[in-house]
Amino acid sequence: MIQAHDKPLPQHLAFIMDGNGRWAQDRGLSRSAGHRAGAERLRDVCYWVLDYGICHMSVYAFSTENWRRSTQEVNGLMRLIPDFFHRYAAEMRDQGARIHFVGDLDQLPAATQKIIGQIQANPPETHKLDLYICLNYGGRREIVRAVQKALRSPDPLALADQLDEDSFRNFLYQPQMPDPDLIVRTAGEQRLSNFWLWQAAYAELYFSPVYWPDFGQADLAQALDAYSLRQRRYGGEKSDNTHP
Ligand code: IPE
Ligand code: IPE
Ligand code: MG
């Protein structure tokens, strides 16, 4: 059921799902328990976003810098990913979510790569939402990878003359993905932490104090209401809420 919503909605809504650790700490639980609660919340948010009729959603699930955490926490996160998708991938597919994984996936454990391969090989016949899950993703890494791909083209010198901002997109992980219109970061921190650096050029940013596992339907509505009031000018004079 699509919710009635007369205000401008983002075409692409992105989340930096932060605060799982603090959520767990407040409850005397392990950080891994916080990540499990965060994963359950991701499933809920995905369905709420589908209800709004938003077509693209991305989430920052594991950054290229998150390997700096303890082995115990990293291992817990790496186990959680296949566990989560074994439980919910079919259901999410039935609800119309086409899932894409974005990042340096070949560095992920074999079990994670296996389920990623299965999910991406079986997209829903018709989909309502493209869901991009950023795993071992870093914006700087993505840009460096893009330059490497460009340099490996058959005629790099000819490419150098032709390359512009539009054609450079073809070397990014998801060339077809529209840029995020709204990036929501939970848990109070006001930074991008290396998320969508290229694509975030004109994204609206929204910071919620709520920890990700507690981020509820009302919090989402508040973020979308705030977005609908933003004046997007893209460097011009007049506000333009259409997508460039
Ligand atoms: C975000 O929650 C999830 C990941 C980075 C994987 P955190 O684990 O960063 O939670 P805090 O910021 O420590 O509370
Ligand atoms: C950003 O959160 C990464 C993810 C949500 C996956 P972090 O918790 O890793 O970011 P910093 O370290 O506070 O900047
Ligand atoms: Mg954090």
What does this structure look like?
The chain is of the alpha/beta class and 244 residues long. Helix content is 41%, strand content 15%. It has 8 helices and 6 strands. The protein has helices at 20-26, 31-52, 71-94, 110-121, 139-151, 156-162, 165-168, 217-228, and strands at 12-16, 56-63, 97-102, 129-137, 182-185, 204-207. A 6-stranded parallel beta sheet has the order 3-4-2-1-5-6, sandwiched between helices. Helix 1 packs across helix 2, helix 2 (31-52) packs parallel to helix 3 (71-94) and helix 3 (71-94) packs parallel to helix 4. The longest helix is centred in the middle third of the chain and has 24 residues, at 71-94. It is globular, with a radius of gyration of 18 Å. The mean pLDDT is 96.
Task: Compose a concise summary of this entry.
It is built from eight helices and six strands; from the N terminus they run βααβαβαβαααββα. With 244 residues, the protein is of the alpha/beta class.
Question: How would you summarize the topology of this molecule?
Answer:
Blueprint: E1 12-16, H1 20-26, H2 31-52, E2 56-63, H3 71-94, E3 97-102, H4 110-121, E4 129-137, H5 139-151, H6 156-162, H7 165-168, E5 182-185, E6 204-207, H8 217-228
Parallel strand pairs: 1-2, 1-5, 2-4, 3-4, 5-6
The protein binds 3-methylbut-3-enyl trihydrogen diphosphate (2 copies) and magnesium ion.
